[in-house]
Amino acid sequence: MTTIEDILLKRRTVRKYTHEAIDDNLLNDILNMGCRASTTGNMQVYSIIVTKDKEIKQQLAPSHFNQKMITEAPVVLTFCADFNRFNKWCRLRKAEPGYDNFLSFITAAIDALLVAQTVCIAAEARGLGICYLGTTTYMAHKIIETLRLPSGVVPVTTVTLGWPDGLPEQVDRLPLEAVVHNEVYNDYSSGRIEALYSEKEARQDSHQFVKENNKQTLAQVFTDIRYKKSDNIHFSNTLLQVLKDQGFMNN
User: Is there a contact between 14 and 73 (Cβ–Cβ < 8 Å)?
Assistant: First the structure.
C-alpha cells in the first residue's frame, strides 16, 4: 500500500503524459479533497479553472511559453486568487467588502496555492503525475483574457495533470539544515553556504547546465540565464499592472 511518506518523499515532476483521459469522477474526487485545504477565515477566496478542451489549451499555450505539457496533458488546472465571488456574496448580504487592496490579493494567492498543493498530493496519491508551471504570473494578463477572468480574479499558478508516460528522475533538494532554522533565523556564513550547496553543484546535471550555458558557476545560470534581473523587473511591472486592472491596488 502506498503511504503518504511514499507520495511525498518519492514525488517527481511529470512533464510527459499518456493519451489516457482522466475519469471525471476521479478528477472530481481529487478536486474535492483539494478543497479541504486550509483557507484564510474559511473564506475560500480561490477558484480553479479546469481546462480539457484542446482549442482552449492551444490558446493557453503561448502564455506558458508553448511548453508541451499544456497541450499534451489531458487536464490543465489554473488556480486563481478570487475575491470576485466573495465580494458579490457580501454585497448580496448588505455587507460592503474592503478587499480591493494588495493584502487581500496576498490572502487569496495563499489560499490558491494551498489548495493547489493539496490537489497535487491528492492526484499523486491516485497515481497521476503533476507539473507546476511558473509562467502563470509572468503572463497573467494573457491568461485572464483566455480564461475570461473577471475583476477580482488573478491566476496564481497552473498545474498540468495526467497519467505519467514513464518515470522521470527525481530532482535534487538542498539538505534539511539548509532551510530549517531552530527557534530563530540563523544567518548563513560563506563557509556554511559552500557546504550546503556543495552537493548540488557537484551533480552531473549541474555541470552540464554550466557548460551548455557557457557560464563559470551554477549560480550564474540562474542569475544570467534562467531568472535574469531584467526579466524579473519586466514581469513584476506586468503583474503589478494586472493587480491594478483586476481591482487589487485601489487602496
Answer: no
Q: Distances in Å between the alpha carbon of 78 and those of 17, 103, 158, 232, 245?
A: 18, 21, 4, 22, 19
**Residue 54 falls inside a structural domain:** yes
pLDDT of 224 > 70? The answer is: yes
Element (H, E) at 76: strand 75-82
Question: Which positions ≥6 away from 97 have C-beta within 8 Å?
Answer: 83, 86, 87, 90, 91
Q: Report which of 69, 70, 157 is spatially closest to residue 117, judged by C-alpha positions.
A: 157
The answer to whether the CB of 124 falls within 8 A of the CB of 7 is yes
**Model pTM score:** 0.95
pLDDT at 1: 66
The model's confidence at residue 250, banded by pLDDT at 50, 70 and 90, is confident
> Residue type for 184, please?
V
Q: How many CB atoms lie within 10 A of CB 81?
A: 27
Q: How many domains does the chain have?
A: 2
CB-based contact 79:113 (threshold 8 Å): yes
- Domain identity same for 150 and 207: no
